[in-house]
Amino acid sequence: MGKPLKVGIIGCGAIIAQYLASFRKLEQIDLVAVADLDPARAQAVADDYEGVRALSVEELLAADDVELVLNLTIPAAHAEVALKAIAAGKSVYGEKPLAATTAEARQVLDAAREAGVAVGCAPDTVLGTGIQTARKAIDDGLIGPPISASATMVTPGHERWHPNPDFYYQPGGGPLLDMGPYYVTALVTLLGPVVSVMGAASHTRSERTIGSGPRKGEKIPVTIDSHVSGVLVHASGALSTLFMSFDAVQSKSPNIEIHGERGSLVVPDPNHFDGDVQLFSLGAEDWETLPVSAGYVDSGRGFGIADLASTPAGNEPRAGGAMAYHALEVMESVLESAHSGSAVRISSTVERPAGVELTVLAGELDRLQAQEAS
């Protein structure tokens, strides 16, 4: 690409620190402005990041030098903010999920298509060396034709550590819509699109107690399912099982495990960008750790925006709206099936994005070389 993509951020909550860490080392991105409903939070970011202006949301959307809006608001506001950014003629990249519902997400994609702007969406963890090395192993035939996969995410609840966990237990939250995007996006990246699902869900408590911060001890209501299981049928014929819980305590199951005719893979945590990929080949005596062979090296949140910036105009970004929409429909349909007791067909589809070759992005190379020299 030529010049850096000029980015403005709306939402200066806890997650912004991870994006800022990436932006400081990516020459593909030029952060120019930030905004938040709390002006003090935006100003604190601007004070700590050279060349960044603290603006109101309206001022940021109107700013001529903002080409893409990074939407870090709560899930319930994702669609509203995205639509305002698109209406202002700006591309948009959002935290997951793309929107609280597929109906809202479709409005975002339709508006972007009509405006001729790009849509990207987290998670971009699938672009890191962990998931991409696993994908290359599958594409290279190391396990043979994939048969099945399992994905497990267990935590006793984010209220134990998050000082403002309310949105995790409101519509748009819950273990599936909060953490499921990492797992479903990884499964689609590894095994291809999903054609139908079945689900079951429950919640054990009607309220949660905040465990840290100034609101410690305050009780908040739970209005969503906090334990979800699902079966995904991929177009390839592979079957994936999901186990997503804010109710259980812990698990020894791999985050993701893929089984084929000639071997099995343990895939690292899809909430992370790296991690070991382990292979047990048919006839082997033990697991072997595969060498890192694909993905963006030493990546972090925001690398999906750098990838979007280098995507030719008119092409779908790897961490793009089509993938985010498909993952959202899969998750929404698992919950629909859980309540109806019937299988649900998935109306959308998506092409598996092209694999990421083992890549050190420009800007990262200098930093890594400096580390090696020191």
By DSSP (H or I, 4+ residues per run), the number of helices equals 10
Quote the average pLDDT: 95
**Secondary-structure element string:** EHEHEHEHEHEHEHEEEEEEEEEHHEH
For the terminal residues, how far apart are their CA atoms? Answer: 30 Å
What is the second-level CATH architecture of the largest domain?
Answer: 2-Layer Sandwich
Describe the structure.
The protein is of the alpha/beta class and 374 residues long. It has two domains: 5-125 and 300-328, Rossmann fold; 126-296 and 341-345, Dihydrodipicolinate Reductase, domain 2 (2-Layer Sandwich). It has ten helices and 17 strands. α4 packs parallel to α5, α5 (102-115) packs antiparallel against α9 and α6 (129-139) crosses α7 (174-191). The chain is globular.
Secondary structure layout plus pairing:
Layout: E1 5-10, H1 16-23, E2 29-35, H2 39-48, E3 53-55, H3 57-62, E4 68-71, H4 78-87, E5 91-94, H5 102-115, E6 119-121, H6 129-139, E7 146-154, H7 174-191, E8 194-202, E9 207-209, E10 219-221, E11 227-234, E12 239-245, E13 256-260, E14 263-267, E15 278-281, E16 288-289, H8 303-309, H9 321-340, E17 344-345, H10 364-373
Parallel strand pairs: 1-2, 1-4, 2-3, 4-5, 5-6, 7-12
Antiparallel strand pairs: 7-13, 8-11, 8-17, 9-10, 11-12, 13-14, 14-15, 15-16
Helix pairs in contact: 4-5, 5-9, 6-7, 7-9
Domain Gfo/Idh/MocA-like oxidoreductase N-terminal: 5-119
Keywords: NAD, Oxidoreductase
GO molecular function: nucleotide binding; oxidoreductase activity
What are the key terms here?
single chain; 374 residues; alpha/beta; Rossmann fold; Dihydrodipicolinate Reductase, domain 2; 2 domains; 9-stranded mixed beta sheet; 6-stranded parallel beta sheet; 10 helices; Gfo/Idh/MocA_oxidrdct_glycsds
